[in-house]
Design brief:
The structure holds 2 protein chains of 2 kinds.
Chain A (H helix, E strand, L loop, with lengths): L11 H32 L2 E3 L6 E3 L3 H7 L2 H35 L2 H16 L2 H11 L6 H8 L14 H25 L4 H9 L4 H29 L3 H6 L11 H10 L4 H29 L4
Antiparallel strand pairs in A: 1-2
Chain B lengths: L1 H21 L10 E3 L8 E8 L2 H17 L3 E8 L4 H13 L6 E5 H9 L7 H6 L1 H9 L2 H6 L1 E2 L2 E2 L2 E7 L1 E5 H6 L11 H11 L15 H9 L17 H15 L11 H6 L5 E4 L4 H6 L7 E4 L10 E9 L6 H11 L2 H9 L8 H4 L2 H4 L8 H8 L1 E2 L6 H16 L5 H16 L1
Parallel strand pairs in B: 2-3, 2-4, 11-12
Antiparallel strand pairs in B: 1-3, 4-11, 5-6, 7-11, 8-9, 8-10
Classes of the chains: A mainly alpha, B alpha/beta.
Family (chain B): Belongs to the bacterial solute-binding protein 1 family.
Keywords (chain B): Signal, Sugar transport, Transport
Pfam family, one (chain B): SBP_bac_8
């Protein structure tokens, strides 16, 4: 408070306390994230024998072999497909649900529906996936049964290479849109009711109010949810693992699934590490692009 | 200023988040459970690595308790993990070993035996068995086919605790209604196919056969055509003419809709709910089917149909001793408790596995009397060949299943898909 600088100055003591608070999470970060990432980086240039722990430096061989492997290319394509559709789908559906429970539904039911939409995020995916698998069965599944009533032919949700990713997308959105809804809902609470009423009196219709007021005010939350969904979709694993196992063939396999297969089935840690580094770079690039892009549409108060 | 701070903080947070998200999640974390008590520090300690359900964990704990009656000052820790892939099990084993907790007594699936031996994790048991009366008596009772599966280069590495095989189950009522004679052992693929076609109903309510695209379930088709995924000297042989013939046969059933979609269908539930006339399985389905109300009048089993030679597949698990155990004598005693008649009986009564000795597997009290031909299951074990489980098992399993899915989903022709799978496995098996 002294001097010309009007920025509040914290005492040494306070700064120290603040750092102390961050220590536990920082130690966790170093031990379980930073060190493993460095280790993966080193291993990606080596051939590593899991059983003996011996390793040989092989330069860029691991990277060359994965880049020339058609399986990694198809896994990369699938991952990008998931990234675009899952993130847009989850964020979009989350936004729609959030507006629905915040604005459109009457207050009393909205509490109920808030829980209903959030519920899938709470249940263990492994168990629910068994139910989804039986929904998606080609010959005895519920979904095909109802499609059949509508006059639509049987769809091989899990056995047709064109539909397996769609089945994963449906499960992923069912599972994750609830979290997006909850986070966006927090942003919607910031929207000033007076502002909306004023706009209404000035003759703004529902769409104008949505795009000119609600979205800009809630944009920091939407942006956060978008980043979360994009990084989540880039490393999508669980939803595929439990539903289609990556199949049929390689048609729904993501990069992370391929990493797990190379690492823990083939015990080829070198290639798995090289793939992980590629994925890390991909996530870094996408995140930077999103941050740069956000300058134009995210408004901080 | 405030705005900028917020952005910096947001950026940092996102950075941290990105890193923590990239760290690939492990699925197997705390599913395992460890039985231990810390009271008895200073005692000799033995570690058991087991796999399976909580029921199997309990049976092993009972055996450990019997071992402890004779050896009260030994502390035994059991780690029981669920297994969805044998590579993961080996991984778990390696993790235990590298952290100084190498298991002394291990329950190992047939699929992982060669992998474990080639990585020098197991102790050969021949010398131990030959000097021990109980164990050599037991060894003579095992089906010799079964001991072969746990032997590598003529050395025995495990004493089987249970086995699993495949026979063909059929719905008697549906055969009666279609006016077909019940199948008999030694029937052929052609007879099987014509029965299956006759039993399939045009409206899709009943399929003649339920094909399941999984590694174990597919293997009888290979062995009854006189072939296997690997040659006798453990080289991959996925695109042999016999393999192509077998896959073409299966693919024709899918194309003709004699079987429901082999990738997504739950064939065992469908058989119980009378949507399938025939399905291949081992003993593990019987309890579920009995609970679902199927009786001796509803279904029976028969050996697998034959094209080139009679056969089936068997898998199973055996108790082994870790290569680097510090307490060999005690480990042998514990191993004996694990394969004692009492323990084998308890395992067999669980109803999942087929007992590994003839006297138990042909005992009605243990095997039950449903279906009529339940003893056919033991016959299948004796004519079966072990599931193809070379050192590169993980890759072989993955590539085979991917290849079958590509055939069944109509993406590739059998020859083309098998050629691709062969070159994939060769690349990993070198």
């Amino acid at each position: 408070m002294r001097g010309k600088n009007n920025k509040p100055k914290y005492s040494r003591q306070e700064t120290l306390t603040a750092y102390l608070f961050t220590v536990p999470s920082f130690i966790g970060f170093v031990c379980f994230v930073l060190i493993p990432v460095i280790w993966v980086f080193i291993i990606s240039f080596r051939q590593y024998n899991v059983f003996t722990g011996a390793s040989v430096f092989v330069g860029l061989d691991n990277f060359k072999s994965i880049l020339s492997d058609s399986r990694s290319v198809s896994a990369l394509k699938n991952t990008l497909w998931y990234t675009i559709l899952c993130s847009v789908g989850n964020t979009g559906l989350g936004l729609i649900l959030a507006v629905l429970v915040d604005d459109i539904l009457p207050k009393k039911v909205s509490v109920l529906f808030r829980s209903v939409y959030f519920f899938p995020s709470l249940v263990g995916l492994t168990f629910v996936a068994i139910i989804w698998q039986s929904f998606f069965q080609t010959d005895a599944g519920v979904i095909n049964y109802y499609l059949n009533l509508l006059g639509i032919d049987k769809v091989g949700w899990l056995s047709n290479q064109d539909f397996s990713k769609v089945a994963v997308l449906i499960l992923d959105m069912w599972k994750n849109a609830g979290i997006s809804m909850l986070l966006i809902l927090a942003g919607l609470q910031n929207v000033n009711r007076g502002l909306l009423e004023a706009a209404e009196i000035d003759g703004a219709n529902a769409f104008q109010r949505f795009f000119k007021i609600i979205i800009p005010v809630a944009s920091p939350q939407i942006f956060f949810v978008m980043i979360m969904n994009v990084t989540g979709a880039l490393r999508i694993y669980e939803s595929i693992y439990v539903l289609s196992g990556g199949g049929p063939g390689d048609s729904s396999r993501s990069l992370v699934m391929l990493i797990a297969e190379k690492g823990f089935t083939s015990f080829d840690y070198g290639s798995a590490s090289a793939l992980s580094m590629l994925l890390l770079m991909l996530i870094a690039i996408v995140t930077v692009v999103q941050f740069v892009g956000s300058i134009w549409w995210v408004h901080y108060e | 200023m405030k705005k900028r701070m917020k952005r910096v903080v947001a950026l940092l947070l996102a950075g941290v988040m990105m890193f923590s998200m990239t760290a690939c999640e492990s699925k197997t974390e705390d599913l395992s459970s460890t039985v231990q008590s810390d009271k008895n520090i200073g005692k000799t300690e033995l570690r058991v690595l087991n796999w399976g359900s909580t029921e199997e964990e309990r049976i092993a704990n009972d055996a450990i308790a019997r071992f402890n009656e004779a050896n009260p000052d030994v502390e035994v820790k059991q780690t029981c993990v669920p297994v969805d892939s044998w590579s993961n099990f080996i991984q778990k084993w390696i993790t235990m070993s590298t952290s100084g907790e190498a298991p002394d007594v291990i329950n190992l699936g047939l699929e992982a035996t060669q992998m474990a031996v080639s990585n020098d994790l197991l102790m050969p048991l021949d010398d131990i068995v030959s000097i021990d009366e109980d164990l050599s008596g037991l060894k003579d009772e095992y089906a010799s086919a079964l001991l072969d599966g746990f032997s590598v280069d003529g050395k025995l590495y495990g004493l089987p605790s249970g086995t699993q095989t495949m026979v063909m189950y059929y719905n008697k009522v549906m055969f009666d209604e279609a006016g077909l004679a019940y199948p008999k052992d030694g029937w052929t693929w052609d007879e099987f196919l014509s029965d299956a076609k006759a039993l399939t109903k045009a409206d899709g309510s009943v399929y003649g056969f339920g094909l399941s695209s999984s590694y174990f379930q597919l293997t009888p088709w290979w062995s009854t055509n006189g072939t296997a995924l690997v040659t006798t000297d453990s080289k991959p042989a996925l695109n042999s003419p016999e393999m192509v013939e077998a896959v073409e046969f299966l693919d024709s059933m899918v194309k003709d809709k004699v079987t429901p979609d082999p990738i997504s269908s739950d064939v065992y539930t469908m058989f119980a709910s009378k949507q399938l006339a025939m399905v291949g399985a081992g003993r593990w389905v019987l309890n579920t089917w009995k609970d679902a109300g199927l009786t001796n009048d509803d279904f029976d089993c028969v050996q697998w149909p034959v094209n080139a030679k009679e056969g089936s597949v068997y898998g199973g698990s055996a108790w082994c001793i870790g290569k680097n155990t510090e307490n060999k004598e005690l480990s042998v005693e514990l191993l004996k408790a694990m394969v004692s008649e009492e323990t084998l009986k308890a395992t067999a009564e669980g109803g999942q596995q087929v007992p590994p000795t003839e006297s138990l597997a042909t005992n009605e009290e243990i095997m039950g009397t449903t279906p009529d031909n339940v003893m056919g299951i033991w016959k299948a074990v004796t004519i079966a060949s072990p599931i193809a489980a070379p050192t590169f098992f993980g890759d072989l399993e993955q590539s085979t299943l991917r290849c079958m899915e590509e055939v069944f989903s109509g993406e590739k022709e059998p020859q083309q898909a098998l050629d691709t799978a062969q070159s994939e496995v060769e690349a990993q098996a070198k």
